């Protein structure tokens, strides 16, 4: 019980930085949207972020995840330091190589990626150097997390995110440096914090290159790369395809929508942090499958109803935050990306048995299949349906993941999620939201009548399909106190 309490307390403590960083990033959205006014600038900011994200995956190559294992597997402090040092040097060295390559590529590469905009010649080198700082920070803060240095982790996690963003705002607002200014701020902030952390952790480094230790790290971490790339495709490729196959303006709208839709992360992130330790702590209980079923269906209902209610009032919220008349139609698409985020969280519940039985490769395979469908679907639909093509493929891709993990989960750890009821519920839900979108897009008078009708239909569907009932609330209430007892 003490270990479980420690697990939850550590999760809550480390969550402070994550939630603080996400909130800070969201609060800065109105500034970025108002000062990145040039056609395509908002999209080019997002496009550069997606490039640096894939760069991070390629440079780290899963060695950060491997350190979570070898930190405890190392026979002594010196060997732990050897693993740590080799992970940092390898990832930083890879990033330096990529930075040199884009620097050599120079103007031709920038013109190819940014549709001939000459002012972006140095954008990728600057962004890649900023990423170098971020990679070093990620490794060192990971080491701090494994060492349970909670406050050091939280302080520097927030310092580098908030600090670099404030510097970016300075270059953007006061120096009018546009997209380049954002990454100048990232470069100064992230490299600065990285140097401070290197100094603080200087005694933890063991300057000894070890091919065997590095090989262990890569062999453990590299198999994670296909899953990371699949996730990157599903979260990043849509905006790039819009930028190249549709227009920079459409990509601007999509970027704004993505930023607003990410608000749902503030709701889902605490659940994600708590779910893994919670599910593992009760997996031996006889009633665990029933609890998993209840949690999955409750999360689906609460999450979807919350997104529907937000959709009713999204127009004024979106216009207030974005503050750009040329991007005003974006509020129509927010619910699709928000729902995609919810589906991403739901797959961990519908696939809980795969986590318990250590069949995580099946989850990775599901993401790989969904990423391929997402990519092909975008290439086909975006030229025809523009933004709707991109956002609809987000929903389709995550639905594929949910269906895949559910089917695989039932083979190794059957849980009665009432999937037939879930399917009917989602079909009704999606139909109603498409109807609400049509009402909003056509500015039908008295839309609240349609909103009220939609809520009544959804509540009726919940009980008509027996997806949930009042008695389940009593079951959850009776179960929770038992968590403090014997297992």
Automatic annotation (TrEMBL):
Going by the UniProt record, its keywords in alphabetical order are: Cell membrane, Membrane, Transmembrane, Transmembrane helix
Subcellular location(s) of the protein: Cell membrane
Q: How does it sit in the membrane?
A: Multi-pass membrane protein
Q: Which InterPro entries match?
A: Poly_Biosynth_Transport (IPR050833)
Q: Give GO cellular component annotations, separated by semicolons.
A: plasma membrane
Q: Where is the signal peptide?
A: none
The protein's superkingdom reads Bacteria
- The portions of this protein that span the membrane are 12-31, 51-72, 84-110, 122-144, 151-173, 179-201, 222-244, 256-274, 294-313, 333-355, 362-381, 387-407, 419-441, 447-468
PANTHER family according to UniProt = O-ANTIGEN TRANSPORTER-RELATED, PST FAMILY PREDICTED COLANIC ACID TRANSPORTER
What's the protein called, per UniProt?
Polysaccharide biosynthesis C-terminal domain-containing protein
